[in-house]
Design a protein that fits this description.
The chain is of the alpha/beta class. Helices cover 39% and strands 22% of the residues. Bound molecules: calcium ion.
């Protein structure tokens, strides 16, 4: 059995309504996905998180180490890709290219063996996942920002979500007012998280944490630059709010640094960037040895969501209770036609919970028409984020 084809695609869609967060505006969504085909006629799909055209180039470069390999040997292929690139890229977008290939190989392996990926990973540890709504970004046409955010949050509660994450990082004073209004809109029973996308200094982050502790915040995500491991620890020690981070971190070695510095309460690897399912599984072993929970970062199409779902279904519970508590998973609710139209899945969202079926691989099929509709040609001169 061998791999006979690997083909990356860059897909893009212009948003009807642009939005922004503490760092930049989004007016389009662009993503690199990859298709891998075996000589048995099976197809696996993967996705990389990050600048799509560079990931595309990375996959093209790495193809030479994938073609002709046995598609069941996911770990062997991962190791080859890692060893061939570690001299130049132990983190960053080339690792996203490896991640995309790895996710596609797990999907392919599941399709070949007629088994869901969570089964290949070792089996489910829970019956369902609790997706949390990621939204509450900002837009230029918000007349009353606090009101608009509160209305959006109330909509997620009506849709059944039991946990919601909102953006902060646009000024401590304005953040406090926004958090206050959103908490008032969703009541006390819905979990609320905040995410600054590392917009703050330690001093600002401490101030915000102190002021919003009263609103029962489940975690404060990326309060400060991911480079400042020790400052994360200092912030942790100054607040009762758990500190989350890791979406900019790569491989078990990156997470080891976060853990050694005692920077975080919740680790957030992105499976489509940190090294794929193969490496995410290793990272989960590392975090469980430290009693740190994992809630993966997810931002992309149904391929990335499916990869995170299967991973979370298999994740060991931390703390180590026999009956696993509800486990959260990020569920981006911002405008994204690629997420909504690219894949079909039997997974069902019901009463705030996500149930995964035993369909083979990642349990998704990819709509070829959607790929053609959104596909863009990539030249080496094009840089797309
Ligand atoms: Ca984030």
């Amino acid at each position: 059995m061998k791999i006979v084809a690997i083909e990356p695609y860059v897909l893009s869609d212009t948003l009807d309504n642009s939005f922004y967060f503490s760092q930049w505006h989004y007016s389009s969504r662009t993503i690199c996905i990859v298709k891998i085909v075996s000589d048995t006629g099976h197809i696996g799909w993967g996705e990389g998180y990050g600048p799509a055209s560079i990931i595309h180039a990375g996959i093209q470069h790495l193809s030479q180490y994938v073609i002709g390999q046995n598609p069941l040997e996911t770990e062997t292929i991962w190791e080859t890709l890692y060893r061939r690139t570690m001299d130049f890229s132990r983190s960053g977008v080339l690792m996203s290219a490896i991640s995309a290939i790895d996710v596609a190989l797990w999907d392919l392996k599941g399709k070949i063996l007629d088994m869901p990926v969570y089964q290949l990973l070792g089996g489910p540890k829970r019956e369902y996942i609790t997706p949390y709504a990621t939204g509450l970004y900002f837009s230029d046409d918000m007349v009353d920002m606090g009101r608009a955010l509160a209305d959006e949050a109330a909509m997620y509660v009506d849709q059944g979500y039991r946990a919601i994450k909102m953006k902060v990082g646009i000024g401590v004073k304005r953040d406090i007012e926004n958090v206050k209004q959103v908490r008032a809109a969703i009541g006390d029973d819905v979990a609320l998280m905040i995410d600054a996308n590392h917009a703050y200094s330690l001093r600002e982050a401490k101030q915000l944490a102190r002021e919003v502790e009263q609103y029962n915040i489940s975690w404060f995500e990326e309060p400060i630059s991911p480079e400042y491991y020790d400052q994360y620890r200092e912030l942790r020690e100054s607040t009762t709010i758990p500190i989350a981070g890791g979406e900019c971190e790569y491989l078990r070695f990156g997470f080891q640094r976060l853990l050694q510095a005692q920077s975080i309460d919740i680790a957030q690897p992105d499976i489509c960037a940190t090294g794929g399912l193969t490496e995410a599984k290793r990272i989960s072993t590392l975090t469980s040895a430290r009693g740190v929970e994992i809630v993966p970062h997810t931002w992309g199409t149904g391929i990335a969501i499916a990869a995170a779902s299967h991973f979370v279904l298999n994740l060991d519970p931390v703390p180590g209770r026999l009956v696993a508590a509800d486990h959260l998973m990020e569920y981006d609710r911002t405008e994204n036609k690629l997420r909504d139209q690219l894949t079909q899945s039997d997974a069902r969202f019901e009463d705030g919970r996500l149930y995964i079926t035993d369909a083979p691989g990642l349990g998704i099929s990819v709509d070829a028409d959607c790929v053609e509709r959104h596909r863009i040609e990539v030249s080496s001169a094009t840089i797309i984020s």
